[in-house]
Amino acid sequence: MKKETGGNEIPAFLTELLHRQYGSAAENILRGYVQKRPVTLRANLLKTNLESVEKALSSLGFHCERAAVPFALIVTNASEEDLSRSAPYERGEIYLQSLSSMIPPFLLNAQEGESILDMTAAPGGKTCEISALTGGKAFLTACERDKIRFDRMNFNLKRQGVPHVNTICRDALTLDDFFRFDKILLDAPCSGSGTITVGERIKISEKLVQNSAILQVKLLNKALNLLKKGGILVYSTCSVLQTENEAVLQTAFKRGDCELVPPELPFDLPRLPSTPNTICIPPNELYEGFFTAILRKK
Ligand code: SAM
Fold first, then answer.
1. Ligand 1 atom closest to 146 (CA)
2. Which of 24, 48, 100, 178 is a good FRET partner for 281, with 20 to 30 A between their CA atoms?
3. Which protein residue has the closest C-alpha to ligand 1 atom 1?
4. pTM of model > 0.85
5. CA–CA distances in Å: residue 166 to residues 46, 47, 109, 163
6. DSSP 8-state assignment for residue 131
């Protein structure tokens, strides 16, 4: 009998859950859990461009390959630690980020002048990306309840040169319903079932999955309250479990005021079976497991 929590093996409850949900496709996920991924990064378009980053890193001996995400690089001969000692990192020209986690801000399709809430935002990678994709011309609010993570986020936003950003250290569930945003990113806290690596400490437990789902439902409901009519909300988790993804969205549809919007990406992604018009990425040699969906408030 395998251990349920806190070890470095996949807990039995998770293997069973994945088989129940995905049938034979569960094996792809379990194989993905043993993959060691290369470091990936986002060129910070607020300060530079992809070509300049590629050149600067190559001249320092880093071997870079283009990723499918148009502003991302895969570095095949270095660790995160190596890169975090480099000058482009120090200057905030790059942000170390998984390819999967670049997808939700991309799908948010933020535009100049829009008011945008990043609801559970630390350490701020996606806030920076949203800003960069608007050329720094959106008005951002980044909310985070954990003070240590909040401070880290402020540090990152400053180093990345993100303008027009208001940061708030509080529980997003207590934000005043008086606020209204054009767009909201809810990159929800989750069990991390998509980001497990065998051999490293595995923290997932049944309780964590259940508690995450309870919080995700509350946060999504709050996000919809804070969204303008016609506004767009991107929901994402680094979990591949229906309990934290489709089941959470179902509770939002019961409100009767939101609908799924088909996600359109100009590049291909590996996909797991998921509800139509949602994206679930399997963990593999390049991507972490991730779920994302776009909702419009009617
Ligand atoms: N979007 C971030 C990024 O890309 O850098 C990662 C966000 S992480 C998945 C979820 C974050 O939500 C954590 O930092 C956690 O502390 C925060 N969080 C959890 N519950 C929250 C709540 N009720 N209000 C605000 N933040 C919350």
1. 16
2. 48
3. 121
4. yes
5. 17, 20, 20, 9
6. H
